Amino acid sequence: MPVPVYRVLEEDGSVVGEVPALSDERLLAIYRAMVTARAYDEQVFRLQRQGRVPLHVPATGEEAVGVGMVAALEKDDWLFTYYRTSAAWFMRGVDVGEVLDEQLGNKESLFRGVDFGASYGSKKYRIFPHISAIATHLPVAVGYGMGASFAGQKTVVAVTFGDGATSRGDFHEAMNFAGLFKAPVVFVCQNDQWAISVPYGRQTAAESIALRAAGYGFEGMSVDGNDVLAVYDAVKHAAEKARSGDGPTLVECITYRLGPHSTSDDPAKYRDPAEVEAWAAKEPIGRFRKFLVSKGLLTAERSRGIDSEVMELVKQRSRERMEVGNALPEEIFSQVYSKVPWHLEEELERVRKKQEEG
Ligand SMILES: Cc1ncc(C[n+]2csc(CCOP(=O)(O)OP(=O)(O)O)c2C)c(N)n1
Q: What domains sit in the chain, N to C, each tagged with a CATH number?
């Protein structure tokens, strides 16, 4: 059964659907958040290659998912994002410096360098602190949503995850509970076609991820995940439903991971460069820029200006945050057990020795 893919903007930026009613200011904020996410990726990639951060998980080409999603939510709604939805954090208003603290493993960071800097969370911005264990945050997101609705709150929970995550039990358990309890949850699948080296077609026999929602008794929809306005529309519809007590929705955003899985990966070993090239032509920022230019909200010159302002800010923040100083390696061992077990004591000893050796 072919699943229609919802789209507002064509790949060349022309309008094929109904443009959502967003102010000019809001449209430009959406653009800036996507540019910030792209600049952040570029900069952290450089920092990783300089040996200043241990690992980076870039989201280049996938910026429209997180940005469109957050633009469609209220600021009190909770985000249960994962490592490749950094764009959502910037749309929520998080400063680049705060995310850099996690990447650098700074002493002022939440995770203190545990989880290699790929994680982020903030109570202030209502972003659940995920870890990189795939799909483990999905049942937690549903539980949070159920709790909020039991308490009579109007909070919506949006949870993001990759296509690979849908092959884990947590996804199915979360979907089942959400459907049964009509939890106010928007499941946003960032289907970027690859789970490290495993392509979508080797992940599942299901033609679409959106179709799976029917098996749990709720609506699923497929949208062009490189079209920020389509993502916005779909999440807005899903969030309104959730807020009025009509339960969850699964929004499958079809996008593409243009970069490597992480800085430890070489995608040239498992995928055809022609495939990457074809998707690069559909990437979300250029498409949205063309739309804004056609609306008279942006010129080529102003867009170059935004690019350089944003990159300058990202570089300034990395200079500032590199001054803060790293968390102590001991903290990795002190945050789980009240009494550190012997095998971790031994590891800690080895870390201390290494530090002494310089
Ligand atoms: C439970 C678990 N199993 C395996 C891994 C190793 N791993 C890290 S990322 C990844 C692929 C995830 O793919 P997907 O869910 O599609 O998200 P993407 O990375 O493409 O955004 C895997 C298998 C993990 N982090 N957690």
A: 5-326 (3.40.50.970), 328-358 (no CATH)
